[in-house]
């Protein structure tokens, strides 16, 4: 990273960090579009990640998300999550926006995470929208899941659904407003582990670039929006981010236990 870019990050008053599936890849949580390992390379999103799919075959969809919840509950945050949590202590204001539906940022010590795509850990009743608490035991499901009937919410009898945003659904209003508002005030945006293919989340990157913010991409591969970035750091986030934190703020990232 050039001296001038380092200086701009060090002098930033407000940094937005936008994360995608790649930030959790080194924790063993699969991404969506990486060749061979990506979920959408193996599974059909139209059968699993739309409201119509859930209506059509609730047990297939619920079982698949239960399998993913099991993976997340058994995963631990990695040095990329720890480095992001450390940046909060170095900069006057940081807004962490994630497309991920896991809680690895929180377990690494980040607070007030803006979850644009919801959370696998917060299902709710389709009918009355009451939150549903999963039983405390972790399901034990084979890779790819198995058919599991979704529970029904005892108060109204409605079916419980995963607390995530599916294709064809809008982003949660408060989170989307908070994300845009943060991007409109930031001096720098770090985009970590996202292919920048899914809208409207990816539009935040161009929005920051248009305003003249420093935009940094951390990714081992090139993405749809390579040209929108002022700086591209190529490599796994678990290596690049701790290095960045050391170079820019002279802070050593401690590993996290994440339980
Ligand atoms: P993708 O799977 O589209 O992209 C993951 C990105 O992470 C790719 O660009 C990889 O190159 C990169 N990557 C892989 N390993 C990495 C590592 N160790 N360090 C850093 N980067 C790494 O995932 P997203 O961009 O998050 O939507 O996908 C966006 C949305 O599409 C998801 O939130 C999900 C999906 O459909 C919903 O669930 C609603």
Outline the structure in words.
By secondary structure, the protein is an alpha/beta fold. It has 2 domains: 1-28 and 77-117 and 171-259, Rossmann fold; 30-74 and 124-161, SIR2/SIRT2 'Small Domain'. Helix content is 34%, strand content 12%. The chain has 11 helices and 8 strands. The chain has helices spanning 3-11, 22-25, 39-42, 45-48, 51-56, 58-74, 79-87, 104-107, 173-183, 203-210, 237-249; strands spanning 14-19, 93-98, 114-115, 124-125, 160-161, 188-192, 214-218, 231-233. Strand 6 (188-192), helix 10 and strand 7 (214-218) form a beta-alpha-beta unit. The mean pLDDT is 96. Bound molecules: 2'-O-acetyl adenosine-5-diphosphoribose (OAD). 2'-O-acetyl adenosine-5-diphosphoribose binds next to helix 2.
Instruction: Name the CATH architecture of the largest domain.
Output: 3-Layer(aba) Sandwich
Number of helices: 11
| Total E-strand runs | 8
Radius of gyration: 19 Å
The stretches of 5 or more residues where confidence is low (pLDDT under 50) are none
Bound molecules: 2'-O-acetyl adenosine-5-diphosphoribose
- Separation of the first and last Cα atoms: 33 Å
Q: Give the overall silhouette.
A: elongated
Helicity level, as a percent range? 25-40%
- Kindly report the spatial arrangement of strands forming the biggest sheet: 3-2-1-6-7-8
Mean of pLDDT: 96
* Global structural class: alpha/beta
């Amino acid at each position: 990273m050039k001296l001038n870019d380092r200086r701009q990050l060090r002098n930033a008053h407000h940094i937005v960090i936008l994360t995608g599936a790649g930030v959790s890849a080194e924790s063993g949580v699969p991404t969506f579009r990486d060749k061979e390992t990506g979920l959408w390379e193996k599974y059909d999103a139209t059968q699993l990640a739309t409201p119509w799919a859930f209506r059509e075959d609730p047990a297939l969809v619920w079982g698949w998300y239960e399998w993913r919840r099991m993976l997340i509950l058994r995963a631990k945050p990695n040095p990329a999550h720890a480095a992001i949590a450390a940046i909060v202590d170095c900069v006057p204001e940081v807004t962490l926006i994630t497309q991920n539906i896991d809680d690895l940022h929180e377990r690494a010590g980040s607070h007030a995470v803006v979850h644009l795509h919801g959370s696998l850990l917060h299902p709710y009743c389709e009918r009355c929208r009451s939150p549903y608490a999963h039983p405390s035991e972790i399901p034990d499901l084979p890779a790819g899941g198995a058919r599991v009937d979704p529970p029904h919410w005892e108060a109204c009898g409605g079916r419980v659904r995963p607390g995530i945003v599916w294709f064809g659904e809008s982003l949660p209003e408060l989170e989307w407003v908070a994300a845009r508002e943060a991007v409109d005030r930031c001096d720098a945006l770090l985009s970590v582990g996202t292919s920048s293919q899914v809208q409207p989340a990816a539009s935040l990157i161009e929005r920051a670039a248009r305003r003249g913010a420093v935009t940094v991409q951390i990714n081992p591969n090139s993405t749809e929006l390579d040209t929108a970035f002022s700086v591209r750091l190529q490599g796994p986030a678990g290596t690049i981010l701790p290095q960045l934190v050391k170079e820019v703020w002279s802070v050593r990232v401690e590993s996290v236990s994440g339980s």
